[in-house]
Amino acid sequence: MEISGHTILYHTAHGDFEAYDSLRNVESKLGAYNFVKCNSCYLVNLAYVDGVEGFDLLLKDYRLAISHPKKKDFMKTLNAYYGRIGK
């Protein structure tokens, strides 16, 4: 998901959808389902992370920036997720 103003753009396997909301609100609802902020604009599903190169998060069709302040916590969460699923 990405935010632009108060519009959330959901990138899904079934296409892209828009909704009026805040990323904080969506994060509070989806955090239990392995959705994590990699910076102030993006919320990603850890199941779709292909890797990390420096401060770039690699997804199937995207390369997203991981913010410097969020990288340590993001990597800790990603590694814990990989440990749970055995990746």
CATH superfamily: LytTr DNA-binding domain
Q: Major sheet, described briefly?
A: 3 strands, antiparallel
Going by CATH, the architecture would be Beta Barrel
Average pLDDT number? 92
Taken together, the total number of domains comes to 1
| Cα-to-Cα separation, first versus last residue | 23 Å
- How much helix is in the residues? 25-40%
Count of separate DSSP helical elements: 2
The oligomeric status of these chains comes to single chain
CATH-derived topology = OB fold (Dihydrolipoamide Acetyltransferase, E2P)
CATH top-level class:
Mainly Beta
What structural class is derived from the secondary structure elements?
Answer: alpha+beta
Order of helices and strands: EEEHEEEEEH
Q: How many beta-strand runs? A: 8
Rg over alpha carbons: 13 Å
Kindly report the spatial arrangement of strands forming the biggest sheet: 1-2-3
Poorly predicted runs: none
Determine the strand fraction and express it as a percent band.
35-45%
Task: Choose one word for the global shape.
Answer: globular
Description:
The protein has 87 residues and is an alpha+beta fold. It has a single domain, classed as Beta Barrel (OB fold (Dihydrolipoamide Acetyltransferase, E2P)), CATH 2.40.50. The protein has helices spanning 23-30, 68-85; strands at residues 2-4, 7-12, 15-20, 35-39, 42-45, 49-53, 56-59, 63-65. It has a 3-stranded antiparallel β-sheet, with no helix packed on it. Strands 6-7-8 form a 3-stranded antiparallel β-sheet, with no helix packed on it. The two termini are 23 Å apart. The mean pLDDT is 92.
